[in-house]
């Protein structure tokens, strides 16, 4: 299985936020943003492993700036860590007011996905080629988060 660079699967999606995406005050629902985060992270994982993928966890979602009806919501996503079958994707969310051109960093998220074979079982994902110091740093941080997720899963099994 060939190794792949972070840039090979990095993805971007954008969509104008409509009234159906928001509450009566015109603020976009967090769930709408989360759905887009899940979509773009899934796209990154799918491009990396060229197989079906499922979301295993959302490590966090930080909402940093309100998104409004009429804003262009843009999400940039890239792999930060690849384990055996799991992949960690970092997603950055930007809101752009299309009338003023003002852009705000609206949020960040880390999503873990798992590569699946045709029978729905975890399958190995291609190794990640790290080409920059930032990629190596993000990979090391991702590995630490993976180890913490494994420890939390062990604790959940103990406590039933």
Q: Could you characterize what this model shows?
A:
This protein is of the alpha+beta class. The chain has a single domain (about 5-160), classed as Hotdog Thioesterase (Thiol Ester Dehydrase, Chain A, Roll), CATH 3.10.129. It has three helices and seven strands; from the N terminus they run E-H-E-H-E-E-E-E-E-H. The protein has a five-stranded antiparallel β-sheet with strand order 2-4-5-6-3. A hairpin with a 3-residue loop joins strand 4 and strand 5 (about 85-95). The longest helix has 27 residues, at about 135-160. The mean pLDDT is about 95. Keywords: Hydrolase. One of its GO terms (molecular function) is long-chain fatty acyl-CoA hydrolase activity. One of its GO terms (biological process) is acyl-CoA metabolic process. InterPro entries: Cytosol_ACT, HOTDOG_ACOT, HotDog_dom_sf, Thioestr_dom.
């Amino acid at each position: 299985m060939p190794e792949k660079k972070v840039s090979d699967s990095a993805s971007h999606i954008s969509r104008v936020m409509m009234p159906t995406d928001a509450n009566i005050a015109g603020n976009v629902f967090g769930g709408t943003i989360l759905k887009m985060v899940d979509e773009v992270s899934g796209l990154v994982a799918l491009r990396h492993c060229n197989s079906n993928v499922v979301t295993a966890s959302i490590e966090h979602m930080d909402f940093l700036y309100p998104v409004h009806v009429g804003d262009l919501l843009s999400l940039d996503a890239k792999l930060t860590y690849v384990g055996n079958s799991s992949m960690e994707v970092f997603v950055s969310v930007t809101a752009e007011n299309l009338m003023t051109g003002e852009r705000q960093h609206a949020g960040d998220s880390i999503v873990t996905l798992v590569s699946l074979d045709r029978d729905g079982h975890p399958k190995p994902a291609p190794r990640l080629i790290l080409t920059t110091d930032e990629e190596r740093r993000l990979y090391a941080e991702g590995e630490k988060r993976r180890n913490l997720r494994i420890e939390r899963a062990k604790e959940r099994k103990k406590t039933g």
